[in-house]
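Supplementary Data S3. Sequence and structure tokens for construct A.
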Amino acid sequence: NNTSSNSSRRSRPGLYSSVSFGTAPRKVLTIFLDTRWGRDRHCIPSIAASIPFGAVISCVTRWITAGFNLPAIFASCHTRKMLNEEQWKWLEEEISNSDAQ
């Protein structure tokens, strides 16, 4: 692991980070978000871990749900968050402090 022992990545929950490539005016900031940590539960629950072939069944049901745009029908799906407040704050700071083009 190349992360220093005093890196902020070691003290916060989740696995999000950013990496810059190049120099101005061709500098790129690549941001890696962790949409697993701190998100709200899915409005359509997953059964992947609880039954045999659950991952396959879960994949198919989510595909059908997306195809019929079912989340648009359920009001609870509109209020779900993929990032917690800590990660949103970090993302805003990363973007505002970057000199990437």
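Construct B, processed identically:
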Amino acid sequence: PETVQNDGHGLHMRPADYIGQVHTLNTSNLYYTDLPSTLERLTERDYRPEAEEKRRLDMSQFQSNSPNTKKKAAGGDDEVDNAIMSLKAKAISVAPRVLEVKKFLSPVEVQHLIS
């Protein structure tokens, strides 16, 4: 198993022992293929766990389902959506440590940031 380093600064970083080293990053945060017509400005109250979960579920309709994997729920016959997307982080510099993650954002996300 890969070890994530914490170099005393509170941030977790993947190691960059040599240029070209590749790490696989698995995330449940999938690409957005569309966005709602309006996005509300978030307030401090919106970051409570229950509000965060509701917002995540509301926004999931706009996310890609192509990398989805469906798994059976424990003790039941219902399928649970456990979508995981894999990204590759490649070390392009050791000092300073720089990792390149290609295809980090979808075209929809890029356009949203630009506009």
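The longest strand covers residues 85-93. Residues 67-80 have pLDDT under 50 and may be disordered.
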